[in-house]
Design a protein that fits this description.
By secondary structure, this protein is of the alpha+beta class. The protein has one domain. It has nine helices and eleven strands. Strands 1, 2, 3, 4, 6, 7 and 8 form a seven-stranded mixed beta sheet that branches. A two-stranded antiparallel ribbon has the order 5-11. It has a two-stranded antiparallel sheet with strand order 9-10. Helix 4 packs across helix 5.
Length: 296
C-alpha cells in the first residue's frame, strides 16, 4: 500500500464540513422530490451521540431503498454542480463499487492503495441502495456468499496490488473476470430482489452489517428490517436537520451494541487512510473556477 498522508486536525475537520455540504445538497433534492433517505451507520451514531460528526469519522453514509435510490439517480441533474456530482458505475464506468457517492466539486481525495484507479476522486459521501433479501435463512446465506464473491471480483483490482503471496495470486486471478460480467449479475440480483417479501433488506455489494461487530442469530445476520429505512425522524446534525431511522436505538444496538460508550482512545481511528488530498474550495462555497481535469 502507498504511504498514507497524516491529515492535520484542521484539514480533517474541513473535510467533514465539505461532506456536510454534500449532505445538505442531497437533503435538498430529496425533500423536493419526496425521496426517502436516512443517515446511517456512523453518521446516525454521530447525530445521536455527538449531534454531528464523530470527531474521528472520515466519511458520511446515506441509505435508501432501491426504488428511492433509482428515483434519486434520475434527478441528480438537479444537484448544484458547483457543490457536487453523483457517481456510480452507470455514470463513471471506472468506478467499480456497488453503491453510489456524491463527490465534492473542487476537491481531490485518493485512498491509499487506490492511486491506480481511474474513477473520479474527491471528498465524498456514500449512498447505499437497500435491496430485499430472500424469504428464508438458507436463501439469505446463499445470497450472501454470492454477494461476497462478486464484491471480491471488483475489489481484486485493488487487492492484487495490496496483498502478498497466495492472497495476491487469488486476487490477480479474480481481476481477470470482466467488470461488465459482474454488473450483469448484479442487475439480475436487483431484479430478483423485487419479488421477495421478507420485509428485510441489505446492501448487496457491502459486508452485511449484522456481521460487522458481533454475532447475531442467522435470521438477523444478513439483513435488517425495512422499517429502519422507511420510518424516519429528523435529527440534529452539525446544525442541520437530517432524516434518520425513527428506531435509532434498535439500529444502533444492532450495529454497535453499547453505542453511547466511546471506544478506547487507541481505536478512535478513521476508516481508511488517504495517500493525497487537495481542497480548492472551502465549506459552504460553490466552486466555479475551471480546474485542470487531471487534478479532479
Amino acid at each position: 500500500m502507498s504511504k498514507a498522508v497524516i491529515m492535520p486536525k484542521e484539514d480533517f475537520r474541513q473535510m467533514q464540513l465539505l461532506q456536510l455540504d454534500l449532505l445538505k445538497e442531497l437533503d435538498r433534492v430529496c425533500r423536493k422530490h419526496n425521496i426517502r433517505y436516512v443517515i446511517t451507520c456512523g453518521t446516525l451514531l454521530g447525530a445521536i451521540r455527538h449531534k454531528g460528526y464523530i470527531p474521528w469519522d472520515d466519511d458520511a453514509d446515506i441509505a435508501m431503498l432501491r426504488k428511492d435510490y433509482e428515483k434519486f439517480r434520475r434527478v441528480t441533474g438537479e444537484l448544484n454542480p458547483g457543490i457536487c456530482t453523483f457517481q456510480d458505475h452507470s455514470v463513471d464506468p471506472d468506478y467499480l463499487w456497488g453503491y453510489g457517492k456524491l463527490r465534492r466539486t473542487g476537491t481531490s481525495c485518493v485512498r491509499a492503495g487506490q492511486e491506480h484507479m481511474k474513477g473520479k476522486t474527491g471528498v465524498f459521501i456514500d449512498i447505499f441502495p437497500m435491496d430485499f433479501v430472500p424469504n428464508t435463512v438458507p436463501g439469505q446465506l446463499i445470497q450472501n456468499f454470492y454477494c461476497f464473491f462478486l464484491r471480491k471480483i471488483l475489489w481484486a483490482r485493488v487487492g492484487k496490488l495490496q496483498e502478498h503471496g497466495g492472497v495476491k495470486a487469488v486476487y490477480s486471478l479474480l481481476s481477470k473476470i470482466s467488470v461488465d460480467w459482474v454488473y450483469r449479475r448484479i442487475g439480475n440480483m436487483i431484479k430478483k430482489s423485487k419479488g421477495y417479501h421478507s420485509g428485510r433488506v441489505r446492501i448487496l455489494l457491502f459486508t452485511s452489517f449484522g456481521k460487522l461487530n458481533y454475532k447475531h442469530e442467522l435470521k438477523e445476520r444478513y439483513s435488517m428490517p425495512v422499517s429502519w429505512f422507511t420510518e424516519r425522524a429528523e435529527y440534529d446534525f452539525e446544525g442541520q436537520k437530517l432524516y434518520g431511522s425513527k428506531d435509532y436505538d434498535g439500529f444502533l444496538k444492532y450495529m454497535y451494541r453499547n453505542y453511547m460508550t466511546l471506544p478506547p482512545e487507541g481505536k478512535r481511528d478513521p476508516h481508511a487512510p488517504f495517500s493525497s488530498y487537495e481542497f480548492l474550495v472551502k465549506p459552504g462555497e460553490v466552486y466555479t473556477e475551471k480546474v485542470n481535469a487531471d487534478k479532479l
